[in-house]
Write a structure and sequence with these properties.
By secondary structure, the chain is of the alpha/beta class. It has a domain of about 150 residues: Rossmann fold, CATH 3.40.50.720. The protein has an 8-stranded mixed beta sheet with strand order 3-4-2-1-5-6-7-12, with helices on both faces. Strands 8-11 form a two-stranded parallel sheet. It has a two-stranded parallel sheet with strand order 9-14. A hairpin with a 6-residue loop joins strand 3 and strand 4. Helix 1 crosses helix 8. The longest helix is centred in the middle third of the chain and has 21 residues. The protein is globular, with a radius of gyration of 20 Å. The chain starts with a strand and ends in a 7-residue tail after the last helix. The structure holds nicotinamide-adenine-dinucleotide. The site of nicotinamide-adenine-dinucleotide (NAD) has 28 residues, from helix 1, helix 5 and strand 6.
């Protein structure tokens, strides 16, 4: 099968592309390679897949020098004409759309980017799938769509009409747009609400990375909501497994869909939404203890109030995922955090005892 994976210079897209290649699929990776965080980490991810920085040229599909079946193109998804041309040339079987402007807090200061990279870009993906039919469009949504909801665990049958950041609103918009295209053009679409993803090659703007950096420097870490946070941290390999299992099962119309009592997570159209989370929330303080253990160093802490746009707790209901794919994420925090700290120390060549 030939996959388009968007966001392959990013954290999750990089891991997904690798796993697809491991199992023998063909992958075209796409990314704008923006500088939202350290661009060198993005180039290093690409480099580790045989895509040399020197060969990258905007709009040009280049083949990996080390991985059979992998090619990469630097492209802005907001560039409709270039994306259209790519779809016509490549004829993808499946699209896994992971590129986006991520980050809740950044959306308070840079709202326009979220419209460009999450809304316009997504419209272009939908239009390309409309005119170049694919077997399945799988795209990243987010647990942040649950916004002001407090009923736990968060279920895809809950209404999610109260986002508390523009980032969350952009992800919820993607789900609505996907439903429209599934309904009008019969495109099977599945949205995946990821719950706080962490692991090797992770994102430098996220807590685990920031904690590790600060602890190693002997600086205090910022602990929001005075540590009173519970998060459903989900290990990257579990997210990847969930994405692939879902991608292999194109969304189907829900034959029991009742328009008099509409289920928000499915439809008469081939449209579906899943949560992918560990479904075992961890106290932020326990997460911090796992980082300390991984590094063999104690954290100094600055206890701070909850940040605007952030939620104090998350917990995924993954019953639908288990029912439809037979899979449940289950990596333990201690194991996942240790894999991250080991990667970090090796990648940045840091000795925590110096
Ligand atoms: N990491 C998490 O905890 C998490 C949680 C929930 C949802 N998500 C979603 O999962 C997806 C992947 O997240 P990630 O953590 O890998 O983020 P990431 O920032 O590491 O990767 C996203 C990539 O998309 C690229 N991109 C942004 N705008 C683009 C555009 N206009 N055209 C082409 N490429 C563009 C960026 O350059 C980046 O490399 C995103 O959609 C994100 O919103 C992530």
């Amino acid at each position: 099968m030939k996959y388009l994976v968007t966001g392959t210079a990013g954290f999750i897209g990089f891991h997904v592309a690798k796993k697809l290649l491991d199992r023998g699929d063909e992958v075209v990776g796409l990314d704008i390679i923006n500088d939202y965080y350290d661009i060198n980490l993005k180039y290093a991810r690409l480099e580790s897949m045989g895509i040399s920085k020197d060969l990258i040229e905007k709009g040009k599909v280049i083949s990996s020098q080390s991985l059979e079946g992998y090619s990469f193109v630097q492209l802005d998804l907001a560039d409709k004409d270039a994306l259209s041309q790519l779809f016509q040339d490549q004829m993808f079987d499946v699209v896994v759309h992971l590129a986006a402007q991520a980050g809740v807090r950044h959306s308070l200061t840079h709202p326009e980017v979220y419209i460009q990279s999450n809304i316009i870009a997504f419209l272009n993906i939908l239009e390309c799938c409309r005119f170049n039919p694919v077997k399945h469009l799988v795209y990243a949504s987010s647990s942040s769509v649950y916004g002001a909801n407090e009923k736990m665990p968060f279920s895809t049958s809950d209404s999610v009409d109260h986002p508390i950041s523009l980032y969350a609103a952009s992800k919820k918009s993607n789900e609505l747009m996907a439903h429209t295209y599934s309904h009008l053009f019969n495109i099977p679409t599945t949205g995946l609400r990821f719950f706080t993803v962490y692991g090797p090659w992770g994102r430098p703007d996220m807590a685990l990375f920031l904690f590790t950096e600060a602890i190693l420097k002997g600086e205090p870490i910022k602990v929001f909501n005075y540590g009173e946070m519970k998060r459903d941290f989900t290990y990257i390999d579990d997210i990847v497994e969930g994405i692939l299992r879902v991608a292999d099962r194109p969304a189907q119309p829900n034959t029991e869909f009742d328009p008099m009592n509409p289920d928000p997570g499915s439809g008469k159209a081939p449209y579906k939404v899943y949560n992918i989370g560990n479904s075992a929330p961890v106290l932020l303080m326990d997460y911090i203890r796992a980082v300390e253990k991984g590094l063999g160093k104690e954290a100094k802490m600055d206890l701070l109030p909850l940040q605007p746009g952030d939620v104090p707790a998350s917990h995924a209901d993954v019953d639908d995922l288990i029912r439809d794919t037979g899979y449940k994420p289950d990596t333990k925090i201690e194991d996942g955090v240790k894999a991250f700290t080991d990667w970090y120390l090796d990648y940045y060549k840091v000795n925590p005892n110096e």
